[in-house]
Structures are given as C-alpha cells and as structure tokens.
Amino acid sequence: MSETGPIILFHAPQSRSSGTLVLLEELGAPYELRVLNMKAGENREAAYLAVNPMGKVPAVLHGGVLVTEQIAIAIYLADLFPEAALAPPPEDPRRGPYLRWMAFYAGSFEPAAVDRALKRDPGPQPMSPYGSFDAVMAVLAAQLKAGPFILGEQFSAADVLWGGALRWMTMFGIVPETPEIKAYIERTANRPAAQRVREKDAELVAARSA
Q1: Quick check: pTM over 0.90?
Q2: Which of 57, 145, 180, 183 is most deeply buried (CB count within 10 A of its CB)?
Q3: pLDDT tens sequence for the chain (210 residues)
Q4: Domains plus CATH for the chain?
C-alpha cells in the first residue's frame, strides 16, 4: 500500500470511471470506491461538485492530491506504480508515442465520436480539433493493424483507455466494428482486470436497483 494510503476513486458503474477502475486493477493498486448514482443526480450535488465542478467521473484522491479528467488520471496512476510497467518512463523512446495516443484520444477521437453520435457537423476544418471522423479512424486503424497493442507488443495504460472506449462505442454503433477493432477489443476486454470490473459494475448496478 502507498505510504499516503489507498487511492479513492469516485466511481459510477458502467461509465468512463470504469476504465479507471480497470487500470487500478491492472496496476494492483490499493483503492477505495466512492460510488455515485448518476441517474439520481448525485454527481450534481454540492458534495461532489466540490470534488469536480464539472460533475463528471472519474476523479481520484490520493494523499491529498485530487486529480480529475480521465486522461490525466490514467497518466498519474500509471506513473505512480512503475513496477506494473503500464507506462514507459520518461527516458524510454516509447514515452512520446504513449503520450501522443493518450492525447489523441482526448483531443481528437472522443470529440469526433461524440459529434458522430449526435449527428453534428465537425465544423470548419481550421476550427475542428480533429478534422474529420474518417481521418481519425484511419489513423487509429493503422495503429491497431500494427498491434497487437497501441505500443506494439507492450500492453499499457493507453490500451486500458482505448480498449474500454472502443468496446462501448462499437456496442452503440458509434464506431464501426472493423476486424482490427474487433480483435483489439477482444484482446483488451478478455484480460482478467477488465472482467473483474465488469462483474463489479454489474453488482453495483444490481445493488442500486434493489
């Protein structure tokens, strides 16, 4: 256990914070859950808005350090547990590509996917953060074909992020389930940590419904 105690994860089952929970499981990190019922609006109550004024999950609290934003949390946690080898260290030549793919997810892929889901035009090319949905998917497809993971043979925190996101987005038809995406989802979703989190989330949802 960390000298500053376990990591507190503010979590809503079957949301973006599930990816953070998978990462914690992959890292073997000590953690505690603070479960929010987003359907009941608990993420919009004053107690949680004091944690994250955006009313979004995930958020983590560790030794007095509060981190919000999914990508920042992933980078922070993977660096916090270097023994798990889920993030290349700064001197590793793979560090740059690793950070690139974390940033590409937040800056290009997710905005493109959200616009696609809402049937919104991406906007003028000079103002769009991603250009076009097809361009984003072509870049991603090329990387996955080179696989098996984002960094080649090394599984990393980037794969926790991308694997979970692609699984959900193909389920809802936002992203096409091409052969390379399907195979990548299977490689990431079948890992024991991801399976444990799906089971845990199902239990949390069932308990909330009861």
Answers
A1: yes
A2: 57
A3: 445 789 999 999 999 999 999 999 999 999 999 999 999 999 999 999 999 999 999 999 999 999 999 999 999 999 999 999 999 999 999 999 999 999 999 999 999 999 999 999 888 888 889 999 999 999 999 999 998 999 999 999 999 999 999 999 999 999 999 999 999 999 999 999 999 999 999 999 998 887
A4: 7-85 (3.40.30.10), 95-192 (1.20.1050.10)
